[in-house]
Design brief:
This protein is an all-alpha fold. It has a single domain, classed as Farnesyl Diphosphate Synthase (Orthogonal Bundle). The chain is built from 16 helices and 2 strands. It has a two-stranded antiparallel sheet. β1 and β2 form a beta hairpin. It is globular. The N and C termini lie close together (about 5 Å).
């Protein structure tokens, strides 16, 4: 990343507060699962070790439930109104990760063995389905119109997520993917759930439709920026930061946004890249050369610039959302901006 993309503000207190508010409700929801599924989920979430013993471990930054709680407060509702939404989006996120690890054959996440390597493929699949079902139950069990509306929003977002994951897998078998298709895949795979996360608290609070739409669009642009940065990290990120091997996405044959942008640019570097991508050997030098060619063809710089552009568009949606004008609502809006900035400006 370039120097100007360093974080502008420490969002750790914001993320920590959201975790403290969400974690008890998330644990309570998971505690209702069948014992084997509870063990798989507890391990995946970092609460249990491989033997089912309690441990203290982080299960990610909690961006999605943080957005849900801040969106709730930004429309003037108490934060407790949004906690079921935060729990639900976190459950959907982890459903997708359980299945994603298995589909990609990833053996580590957050520097720990992935759940499927510990409990087996079938248990990981069922564990993911259990979390998917539980997410809907958390919202529907509220027994309110707002809860039903939030569940409908989450269902549509999950359908988009599954479509994106399907396309992501299918792209691995293609020599190249047009840039517009790759962007659409990223919108479904990643932006759909982040969009739902930003809007779900407002839905639960009964906010006006135009406000819900603006928060949804804020999340959509942020989600695209998130995936753009993730794709950069998937090629040039360090294992200490990503928890994955160097050049991980290239080794997996993924047609990520930097790859697609480089191929789309044309020229000698793009032509050589296309030739290498069609090869089947797994030599490390090949993947290092692919990374060099992606950068030479402009794929890295395009991805950085597009992430910045999407961040700007997200900010514009937030500014025009018609959010509440109370001290806490204004603070929550400012914190939404800070979290968005953090998401995009993660260092390589």
């Amino acid at each position: 990343m370039t120097a100007e993309m360093l974080p502008h503000r420490d969002v750790t207190p914001i993320l920590d507060r959201a975790r403290e508010l969400t974690d008890p409700a998330l644990r309570h929801a998971v505690s209702g699962l069948a014992p084997q599924m509870r063990r798989v989920a507890g391990y995946h979430l970092g609460w249990l070790d491989a033997n089912g013993e309690e441990q203290s471990s982080s299960h990610g930054k909690g961006i999605r439930y943080t957005l849900a709680l801040l969106g709730t407060e930004a429309v003037g509702a108490p934060v407790t109104t949004g906690i079921p939404g935060g729990v639900a989006v976190e459950l959907i996120h982890n459903f997708s990760l359980l299945h994603d690890d298995l589909m990609d054959g990833d053996k580590e996440r957050h520097h720990r063995a992935t759940a499927w390597t510990i409990f087996g493929s079938s248990a990981a699949i069922l564990g993911g389905v259990a979390l998917l079902t539980l997410a809907e139950e958390v919202l529907l069990d509220l027994g309110t119109e707002a809860g039903a509306a939030a569940a409908a929003l989450l269902t549509k977002s999950t359908a988009r997520l599954v479509t994106g994951q399907t396309d992501d897998l299918e792209f691995e078998t293609r020599a190249s993917v047009p840039l517009d298709e790759c962007i659409r895949m990223a919108g479904n795979k990643t932006a759909a759930l982040i969009s739902a996360s930003a809007a779900i608290g407002a839905v639960l609070a009964g906010a006006p439709a135009h406000t819900v739409t603006a928060l949804s669009e804020f999340g959509e642009h942020l989600g695209l920026a998130f995936q753009l940065v993730d794709d950069l990290l998937g090629i040039w990120g360090t294992p200490e930061l990503t928890g994955k091997p160097v050049l991980a996405d290239l080794r997996a044959g993924k047609k990520t946004l930097p790859v697609s942008a480089a191929l789309h640019a044309g020229g000698p570097a793009a032509d050589e890249l296309a030739t290498l991508l069609a090869e089947t050997n797994d030599e490390h030098d090949r993947f290092a050369r692919e990374a060099e060619l992606i950068e030479a063809a402009g794929g890295r710089q395009w991805t950085i610039a597009e992430a910045e552009r999407q961040l700007t568009l997200a900010g514009q949606q937030l500014a025009g959302a018609g959010l509440a004008d109370t001290p806490r609502a204004r603070q929550a809006t400012d914190e939404l901006s800070a979290v968005a900035d953090f998401v995009v400006r993660r260092q390589l």
